[in-house]
Amino acid sequence: QVQLMQSGAEVKKPGASVKVSCKASGYTFTSYFMHWVRQAPGQGLEWMGIINPSGGSTSYAQKFQGRVTMTRDTSTSTVYMELSSLRSEDTAVYYCARSVEMTLHGDYWGQGTLVTVSP
Amino acid sequence: QSVPTQPPSASGTPGQRVTISCSGSSSNIGSNYVYWYQQLPGTAPKLLIYRNNQRPSGVPDRFSGSKSGTSASLAISGLRSEDEADYYCATWDDSLSGPVFGGGTQLTVL
């Protein structure tokens, strides 16, 4: 069965970086795109970017350009999302979501990773 | 650009039919597919509707989606208490060259 298993919760200080992982299993890793979506406490969903695990190409939301980096490791079927220069407003649950296309056709989602940014 | 707009809240009684709207623009809903997600408290979003009106396997046919022009709707018939959740529409935005979510609608089953 398809599973997306994300890394555990993180607590970071302002200005630091965080790297969240999403390990895929149960399907051909390179056949699906992977989106990253975040949700601040009590807020809605926000699209951050997408990676194509096949070639590693990425596309980021303008808001995160310069601060986010998405990578993949095909040997372990894992995608990573690194966010730098963290500020308190980055406190959120971060999700990975598999999609057959670049649109938000997220048929499977990870369980979410809470990132807390606090002095 | 115009990010899709949803009513912040909606409500209904068990057995009732409710609809949730998602209003966009020609650069997003008007020219692209719409997707709908259900998010139960404390859980990851779940895909309810894809490509405007298609249901993934396992999603009850009580849920249906439609699109007309620059707006889309999610309808839930035979409302149940377990339908109480947040609902989000999503689509591609040509001007942003990326996907966008609506603001979400909190559905309460009275």
Structural features, described:
Chain A has 119 residues and is mostly beta strands. Chain A is built from no helices and eleven strands. Chain A has strands at residues 3-6, 10-12, 18-25, 33-39, 45-51, 58-60, 68-73, 78-83, 92-99, 106-109, 113-117. In chain A, the strands form two sheets. In chain A, strands 2, 4, 5, 6, 9, 10 and 11 form a seven-stranded mixed β-sheet that branches. A four-stranded antiparallel β-sheet of chain A has the order 1-3-8-7, with no helix packed on it. In chain A, strand 7 (68-73) and strand 8 (78-83) form a beta hairpin. Chain A is globular, with a radius of gyration of 13 Å. Chain A starts with a strand and ends with a strand. The mean pLDDT of chain A is 97. Chain B is mostly beta strands and 110 residues long. Helix content of chain B is 0%, strand content 45%. In chain B, strands 1, 3, 4, 7, 8 and 9 form a six-stranded mixed β-sheet that branches. Chain B has a three-stranded antiparallel β-sheet with strand order 2-6-5, with no helix packed on it. In chain B, 38% of the residues are buried. Chain A binds chain B through residues 35, 37, 44-47, 49-50, 59, 61-62, 95, 97, 102-107, 109-112, and chain B through 32-33, 35, 37, 39, 44-47, 50-51, 56, 88, 90-92, 96-104.
